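The methods section describes the discrete structure representation at length, but only in general terms. An entry of this sort, consisting of the sequence and the corresponding backbone structure tokens, reads as follows.
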Amino acid sequence: MKKGVVLIISIFLIALALLGILKGNLKTQTSNPEVVVSSGPEEKRITIVAVGTLLYNMPIVWGAYNGSSYDFRPIFEDVKKEIEGADFAIADLEATINPKKKLSGYPRYNSPIEILDGIKYAGFDVLNLANNHIMDNGLEGLLYTRKAIEDYGMIPLGAGDKGQEKHVILEKNGIRIGLLSYTYGTNGIPAPDGTVNFIDKEKIKKDIEEIRKDCDFLIVYLHTGTEYVRNIEPYQYELFRWVADLGADAVLGNHPHVYRDSEIYETGGRKVFINYSLGNFISNQNDKYTDIGLMVRLTVLKRNSVTKIEKAEVIPVYRLRYREGGKTVYKVVFCSRIDDYKIPESQKSYVLEVYNDILKKNDFSGQF
């Protein structure tokens, strides 16, 4: 075969091959149009830790004095990791700060400003002031306390000067958390109008309607209940559930100084976490159960436009108190780790008995 013929045939075969490849590519492109793969619902989460009352009786103040200043940070060393590990941590502060007056404990608390250093060190973000001791040093004490909290980089809730915001809105991971707080009273000490949030159904209803427009998840604190009584009063059931019906996603109680049970309350297609008293977090009170309180940890899930509780945990804590170096030492510890501490066996038995009872009555796993 002549070279010219061979060359023509070769070129023809190459052309056919190229045409086949081109057709294959065209077929692939036309038979597989661009496919948009859905990534599923967008999910965001945050964790919230809430604890009971911080009550700085004078023995706690004396125990924190080192000869020249006060150091309250060791109180929280053993629970600090859990508190600061949350996206937001909240506590009820039943104390006021007024450096113009003498330090005092019950019945009118005036604490050293260093308590805020310890509270900040523990990892708390918000301090509730709508409680019965907020007027212990009058309006001056309230305003100084609120300002000091802000100076320490924390947020006051529920009380302030007239015109100052009493609610709080927090935001993280695209989730907006609203906080409201109310107290039954201020121990008979008058509070100027507009300075303290009192439990008033008309006001609560109005506040919830307004704040729900600006938040995805709402927590309401109610400072009420008979002191040192663990039974939940009928009016508490009615009030707390009524607040949930209005739109709260969690309702938390303080004031009794002892823990009370929690529940999951279903209303309007929602599951609301309710605790009727978180008890004390730190205090020098001696009545039974005043030394054991609750830490509540809520995992909040936002899936697209719907926000709800994904998980609720009730964690019992114990106020450890012992003598060392000629003074009394106070620590908040987890009941689950009580065997790690050198205390009398009878004391350990009491803590473990209460701990197991709390877990049995407050296990909400699988309920959301």
Observations:
- The domain at 43-361 is CATH 3.60.21.10 (Purple Acid Phosphatase; chain A, domain 2).
- Residues 3-31 form the longest helix (29 residues).
- The two ends are 84 Å apart (CA to CA).
- Residues 1-33 have pLDDT under 50 and may be disordered.
